[in-house]
Amino acid sequence: MKPFTQEERAAIEAAITRAEKHTRGEIVVVVAPASDGYYALALMWSALLALAVPLPLILLTKWPVEYIYLLQLSVFAICVGLAQIEPLRLAVTPASIQRARAHEKAVEQFLAQNMHTTRGRTGVLIYVSFAEHYAEVIADDGIYKKVRPIVWEEVIAELTTHLARGTRDQGFITAIAMCGKVLAEHFPPGHADKDELPNHLIVLAPYGRA
């Protein structure tokens, strides 16, 4: 994930502010370079490959057991070294696990950003994890009761299309505007509304850490 420029951050913050002027709902945007390091799975593959080394050598060669053992250790050490390369860790991690971990991190951020504490339960989180190519919209209970899931799927489709094109700032701005339009329709602004949550883009440290 390339760092967000000040111009991108300002444009996203302005988009949130514009959207929230027409609703009592709250929109929060959180992005992460990656939702997890996936080290455990990479180490598991390293161990499995190392464990597979001795059998063919025992059956097909007359190598001393000491040589086989040293080769096994070498294979494990090399695999552990390769596991430090993030693209390789992602390559050996099934997509289903990546999606599950990114979704888990999105839910964690929904709670961490106090989305569930807004009046009327009208918070909407836009979460993107770049390494996993994952995006999700999580809306609080008050919104889910009134808005069909397909609406959020359309928001994600628009956002991911822009991300794939490399126009991420426009993608976030469009997604925010779409969320704002939905919130304005079902939750128009009240007389005593106040901005309960921050409008700025929240960028997590690697692996979804705050």
What key attributes describe this structure?
210 residues; alpha/beta; four-stranded mixed β-sheet; 9 helices; 4 strands; elongated
Description of the structure:
There is one protein chain. 56% of the residues lie in helices and 10% in strands. The chain has 210 residues and is of the alpha/beta class. The chain has a four-stranded mixed beta sheet, sandwiched between helices. A hairpin with a 4-residue loop joins strand 2 and strand 3 (134-139). Helix 1 (6-20) runs parallel beside helix 9 (168-186), helix 2 runs antiparallel to helix 4 (65-82) and helix 8 packs antiparallel against helix 9 (168-186). The two termini are 16 Å apart.
- Rg estimate, integer Å: 23 Å
User: Could you tell me the number of beta strands?
Assistant: 4
> What is the number of helical segments per DSSP (H or I, 4+ residues)?
9
Using the alpha-carbon principal axes, give the shape: elongated
Name the helix and strand elements from N-terminus to C-terminus, one letter apiece: HEHHHHHEEHHHE
In whole angstroms, the N-to-C terminal distance is 16 Å
Helix content: 55-70%
What is the topological layout?
Elements: H1 6-20, E1 26-32, H2 39-52, H3 54-60, H4 65-82, H5 86-91, H6 95-112, E2 123-129, E3 134-139, H7 141-144, H8 149-165, H9 168-186, E4 202-203
Parallel strand pairs: 1-2, 1-4
Antiparallel strand pairs: 2-3
